[in-house]
Amino acid sequence: xxxxxxxxxxxxxxxxxxxxxxxxxxxxxxxxxxxxxxxxxxxxxxxxxxxxxxxxxxxxxxxxxxxxxxxxxxxxxxxxxxxxxxxxxxxxxxxxxxxxxxxxxxxxxxxxxxxxxxxxxxxxxxxxxxxxxxxxxxxxxxxxxxxxxxxxxxxxxxxxxxxxxxxxxxxxxxxxxxxxxxxxxxxxx
Length: 189
Prior knowledge:
Helices cover 68% and strands 0% of the residues.
C-alpha cells in the first residue's frame, strides 16, 4: 500500500502568469473656471449669486476652462485673489448667518429661562403666603391655648381655694371631734 505524502510542494509554480500591474492614477487638472469672477457679480444679491453659481456648476463640466487658458503667473494670481475674495465673502455670509441663528437660539433660551424664572418666583410667593397663613394659624392656636390654660389655672386655683375654705373648717371640726372622742375614751382631760 503506497503512502501519501502530507508535505506541501516546495517548488513554486513558475509557469503561471503574474498579475497585471495596477493602472496609473488619473492625471489631475486644475479647473480655473471657478476662479474667474465677473465685475457685475459684486452688484448681485446673495440669493442671485447662489442661483448663478448653481447654474454655472450645473452647466460646466470638470475639464471645462471656459475657453480661457492661463498664460502667465499674474493672471493666475489675479484669478486666485478673486477666488479668495469670493471665499471671504462666502465665509462672511456664513458667519453672519451662524451669528443670526445663534442670537435667535439665545433669545429663545433667554425667553424660556425668563418664563421658568417667573414660574419659580410665583411658586415661591405662593409658598411664602401658605407659610405665613400656617404660622398665623399656629400663633393663633398658641395664643388660644395660653388663654385657655390661664383660664384653667385661675379656675383651678379658685375652686381649690373654695374647697380649702369650705372644707378646712369642716375638717378641723371633724378632727377636733375625733380628738375629743379619743380623749373622752381614754379619759384624758
